[in-house]
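#data-curation
PF: Archiving a pair of folding outputs for the training set. Convention for this channel: one message per protein, sequence first, structure tokens after, nothing in between. First:
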Amino acid sequence: MMRKTFIIGILLIFAAGTAAAQDVLTLESAIEIGLANNYGINIAKNSLKIADNNATPGNAGMLPKIDVNAGYAHQFSSAKQSTTTGNSLDNPNANSDLFTAGINLNWTLFDGLKMFISYDKLKKLEEIGDLNVKISVENTLAGIMAAYYDIIRLEKVTQIIEEQVGISQFRLELAKLKYETGSGSELEFLKARVELNSDIANLSNQKTVFINSLATLNELMARDVTSKFNVKDTIFLHYQLNYDSLRAGMREANRNLLLYNRNMEVSSLNLKSARAVQWPSVGLTTGVNYLNNQSEANFINYNRNFGAVIGVSAYMNIFNGLNMQRDVRNARISYATSELEMKQLENKLDAQLLKIYNQYLNQMELVLFEKENVQLARKNMEIAKESFEVGSISSLQLREIQKNLLDANTRLVEAEFRTKLTETALLLISGKLLR
């Protein structure tokens, strides 16, 4: 038994040395890596680049359109003509050459201000793209933080179970000693061995869950999922989150709320755009054109024309089956719907904030309560071990006290973890997570 204990000790020392050799990944580093590599964020950034490229005066129709054209044609024909004056032309091999060139400008001067409305809409879509990037960043940030704290939680639970294995090992050694000296029963010895094996199996399962949690964080950071690392072993809690401050921040900075607000503004611009179609459209046309025509198929065998042209055009639709009026009505309904969706989201966020804040207060109380329970359970365990050594309590009683310590430690770790999750959720919903 002493040899087995020695081997376990050597393995623990080796494991500790291996862990120390691994890099310690701080939460700040995990966030930095994740925000740089996360696929969802980079996809959102690419969408933002497209929206930024689209938000130009030219795409809104505010700039003129200039076209250059040139052409050449050679025609083979047979020509036969006569005129009332008696002139005639009969040429079976009449060829002609035609060369044209020109540059033309078309510019919409007025379209019911639709071009300006379109430009404002493109800028709003750019803002929506930026908000989508920030929402993706916030969600990734919250996910990384939750995964990081989960690793700390699982590591602490693993350490708790390892402590339980040590206590069970102590029980087994003492039960074996009593059995060999005749002061204890074989039943107690076998029972202690079964419970040790159960604790070791539980520890093995817990280590598997812990290793998988490392892969989860690596996935969120978009790096090799097999990368090994250690994390900080403490979850720091905020003790001064104020509900009124959080609610005010949510109204001003919640990205989803801001996104709905931008969508409502886009709906308003769509309504203005639908109304603008009812106005006339005025355009300017100007250009320079060149024509050179040489033909053997006409009495005039050479024609050259070069000059500028300028003109103004106006267009207004008088009737198109009442579709313009229908578009305006639909745009008005869409705007009203966006207002309702905005109010619905505000109400939903208010409810979520209140519920999460109540959970946060409850978890903070549980943390303080469970810290006291752990102290009492640990002191009780120390007394129980001494009592068990002298035979004052049974193995069954020691096991019950051991379980109480395990439960108290586990509840404290879980309470700290849930408190941190609710704290992160509060910072996320209030727009304070991403400064």
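PF: Second:
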Amino acid sequence: MATKTLTLPLATASTAFDAAIADLDAKIAELAARRAALKAQARGTAKRRRQRDRLTDRKIQTLKNPGFYADGGNLYLDHKDPPSKNWVLRYTRAGRTHDHGLGVYPAVSLAEARLTRDAALAKLRAGIDPVEERRATKLASKLGQAKAMTFRQCGEAFFAAHEKSWTNAKYAAQWRQPLEAYVYPVFGDSPVAAIDTALVMRAIEPLWGSKTETASRLRGRVENILNWATTRGFRNGENPARWRGHIENLLPKKSKIAPAKSFAALPYGELPGFMTELAQKTGLGALALRFTILTAARTGEVLKARWDEIDLAEKLWIIPGGRMKARREHRVPLSEPALEVLMAVRRLPPSLFVFPGHPPQRPVSPPVMLEVMHRMGRAGLTVHGFRSCFRDWAAERTGFPAELAEMALAHSVGTKVEQAYRRSDLFEKRREMMRHWAAYCTGPVPAGGVVSLAGARISA
């Protein structure tokens, strides 16, 4: 049987051949492209290898000029002057450049810095910002410390921070006492972050009716301690001990159950007779009381007065700001009767203090003037009350301006802005006022007598 041969037209055979050739050319081109890509990748890898691990320990140790030295892979050595070498990972996230400290060389070696860098870069690729992660870790640690910080510890820290600013040593010594008696037993050992209104009320409310003034001061101290703790980051939120808009809604006003009491003061009309009787008393306490009345000074300012503060020639006593309630230096003009007291005190054994105690190296004790008044049958009076006596006399019997009397008492006059612009303490005018005060204190005053003083009418 004869075999039949299939014969394709010449045009069809040529088309199939061309297609095969074109397919082969495409594969050759694809292989060439892959070859080129692999070669480029190899070159890039080599380049990256050359760009990383640029630093060596020897190079780091011999660095002289401060600068930012790259090790590669976002790792840098920040060499500063004075000498310090810090590892820094620098990266960009959300369009911002961040520097992430990795430690100090050589405490963190070159190899350790590279391992830490690689771990941080892995976190960045996973969407974790190492700076934010470190900040969150610190915050968690801080919150843990806050939970462990007790109210008592905060109270002691507050006391230590403010003790030196309290000019009254007695106040500083007594500051802890009510806390230890009434607050610490209730919530002293509780975490300061856990103190709430209920705990504050458990300590304050039982005292409010019977010891209102103590309870009021105690509440203020608790509020201050909690404010300190909040500022330090040991607690957050509103202060549960605040009065306005909070505790005032839970307790009656202090003025309703314990009206404010003024210092017991002698009526100024009785002062000349009192001073005449006082002048007949001997002893340091009587001299200190006379000087206190004549200068209208505070008890503590007089008892701690030093001779180096007094200029007898200028008839001047300069009280340093550190011993003043307002923390400002105060100049006191000395009248003739006040100078007479100082002359009498100078006959005592030498001492740094004008009114020395026992031993003379210390000032006289505070109760000494109260004891004098007690022996005079005036036990109901207070030494501070003589300042009120002076103020009443100046207001009712003289034409001196009110601000002059306030300045003589070392009170702050006017707003803070006015105080900032006031350059004069009106010393010479105050000297004249204290001269009239001394004259009133030490001698009988004719009823209705009037003295003219630079345009002012001053009753004798």
